[in-house]
Amino acid sequence: MSARNKPPFRADHVGSLLRPKSLLKAREEAAAGAISDDELRAQEDDAISDVIKLEQDVGLRSITDGEFRRASWHMDFIYQIAGVEKVEQKLQSVFHNPQGDIYFTPSAVRISGKISMDHTIFGPAFEFLRETVRASPAGGTPKLTIPAPSLVHYRNGPAAIDHDVYPDMELFWDDVGAAYADEVRRLGELGCTYLQFDDTSLAYLNDPEQREMFTNRGEDPTHQHEIYIRTINRALENKPVGMSVTAHLCRGNYRSSWVAQGGYDFVADALFNDLNIDGYFLEYDDERSGGFEPLRLVPKGKQVVLGLVTTKRGELEDKDVLKRRLEEASKFVDLDQVCLSPQCGFSSTLEGNTLTQDQEIAKLRLVVETAEEVWGSAG
What we know:
alpha/beta, TIM Barrel, six-stranded parallel beta sheet, two-stranded parallel ribbon, 11 helices, 12 strands, 17% strand
């Protein structure tokens, strides 16, 4: 069984990491006007330098900035797309956990102009990550995470689109795909060789309740995932040579809580056979994710990164259990096409999940050690 010298790696991770308390305090001070934007940026730089070293020390080869410059994994990106307007209307999402439900109510979006990419979103953030990793003897591959094109549409739907701007939804999707293609090109010019689309939509649509939402707002839930997949493919038509692209499918991750449930069966065929990417980060940390049977549809040449280690709880998984689950998955997909990771990020929003940094580090180290024992190398 071979090591992997390109992304995704045998031991990998989704991207976001717990923010240090000092950084959370600095963001509060900046919001209150107590410190300047430059002072906040300097504190972000220091915190990111520390978290890069954390990732290197546990043996990871994919290195992110922990998403430390963001409040939200997706909205910080989407609000910067030209043509997207932030509106004060609140859209409530209900997240579930064993203790009950909690609510997340971010501002909504309005598509008030033609969608385009007038600057490289997260470009300066990636440049800092790239240069910091390059300057470190431990090295690694800088990885950037951005929300998938579907997130411009999923929560708000056609009601949020100005129909004078887009009288035809096909025109909307053409522009979304073209804008993302521009972003991918720009990131390639900055030296990004590992890009990840974070996508809740392709996971949510496995849940009948989520599909019912589309029916209720007059859309066709049977084929919506195919539209999303075509749009991602449009974004990657001229993907830079040497750039590896993955997608992370998430059922919701906010303060250790989730939104959707259901196996990958509904989207699996189109997901694995039509989506033109290199690998898939798949949540498989509990029964909400279903079984491994859909993996039988993964074609040769693509990797699946199994998220067997949960980020929602601090208790550490048993290594032998992880190995048994990898063996079970290998009944449906060649083990040489499999990698291992936590099931999601540790802090999709500022608040983070309910575990400590020590527990986060232990889980990342467990992923690396397990991969080394199964495949011979975390790479």
